[in-house]
Amino acid sequence: MKILAVIVGADSTATCLNAAVLGAQCVGECTIEALNVVVDPAHLVAASDEVDMQRLRERWEGTASERSAACHTAFLAWNAGAAQDVPSVTWRTVVGDEEAVVTEEAKNADLLVVIAHERNMDGGDALHAALFGTQKPVLIVPISWKPRAGQRFSHIAVGLSDSSAARRAVEAATPWLKGATDVTAIRIGDVDDPALKLESLLDDAGIANRLRMVPRSHGNLGHQLLTEAHQAGADMLVTGTYRHNQLIEWFAGGTTRHLLACADIPLLMIH
User: Fold this and answer.
1) Which residue in 38, 158, 234, 252 has a CA-CA distance of 20 to 30 Å to 185?
2) For residues 269 and 128, what is the distance between their CA atoms, to the nearest angstrom?
3) Is there a single domain that holds both residue 114 and residue 160?
4) Residue where one domain finishes, among candidates 142, 164, 193
5) What are residue 89's DSSP bridge partners?
6) Rg (the chain; Cα; Å)
7) Top-confidence residue, 248 or 209
8) Distance between alpha carbon 118 and the CA centroid of its chain, in Å?
9) Both 74 and 162 in a single domain?
10) Is residue 211 assigned to a domain?
11) Contact in structure between 151 and 176 (CB atoms under 8 Å)
């Protein structure tokens, strides 16, 4: 299995790598590659306004090569301080468009790890490409998240919903769910909800789980789902993206948008 950790900023490099390592430790045999896309406007094949925007950002973020060098320095610092039992991580840089490179490199990966809330253009582009352009499971890590000493992804919550994306998320997350000590299946809704059929996917995969069935009590489903995951003591939340198309979710809000904006634990999602 290959885990692709997409590095989009020096400040979030350690967070991204820590999450990738925990993901690898959860399933066993894994390789981890840290991918940094060098978005250099001199080599960018894009609309002129996109190129101009990339040149403009150099004024406050530095050049593409300077940003990449800062990320690599952060990677070396993290690597030097990593424990001996941490899986090795290789570093790779690719010059190109962030979304295009992430989409292409994802073809050879089993899991992508990306940062949420990174305050630069690359972070938003990487997250959008990973979630909506790859059809691969994506571990989305809040930039403020820090693992506790000795933490593993030992307790994973699964959000059950009556969508094909939720089914794909459960199926894609199976290796991590099998590696967890505890799995809590959360369903917010009625007792006769068809989404409860997804619990059989866990049973069929041999994944012991506890069902947490609660009525809808908040106007935003994402808010309540995160609250239930916290109350269950989960280290990670597995969920599909919800029913709206990507433009509606990305620009107009909704459950997926709220999860991405407000989660303070890693989310394993697939569109």
Assistant:
1) 252
2) 12
3) no
4) 142
5) 32
6) 19
7) 209
8) 12
9) no
10) yes
11) no
- Contact between 241 and 270 (Cβ < 8 Å): yes
Whole-prediction pTM? 0.89
Report pLDDT digits (tens) over 128-180.
999 889 989 999 999 999 998 888 999 999 988 777 777 888 899 999 999 99
**Location of structure tokens 């941490």:** 86
The total of structural domains in the chain comes to 2
Tell me the C-alpha distance between 213 and 186, whole Å: 6
Alpha helices in the chain (DSSP H): 13-27, 48-61, 64-81, 98-105, 121-133, 164-172, 174-179, 199-204, 221-232, 246-252, 255-262
Query: Any idea what the CATH number is for the domain that residue 24 is in?
Result: 3.40.50.620
Query: What is d(CA 32, CA 30) in angstroms, rounded to the nearest whole number?
Result: 7
Q: Which one-letter amino acid corresponds to residue 23?
A: G
pLDDT digits (tens, 9 = 90+) for 183-192: 999 988 766 6
Q: Which residues pair with 267 in a beta bridge?
A: 140, 237
Tell me, what amino acid is at 185?
A: A
101 and 29 share one domain: yes
Both 110 and 216 in one domain: the answer is no
Residue 147 lies in a domain: no
How far is residue 235's CA from residue 229's CA, in Å, rounded to a whole number?
A: 8
SS3 label, residue 96: coil
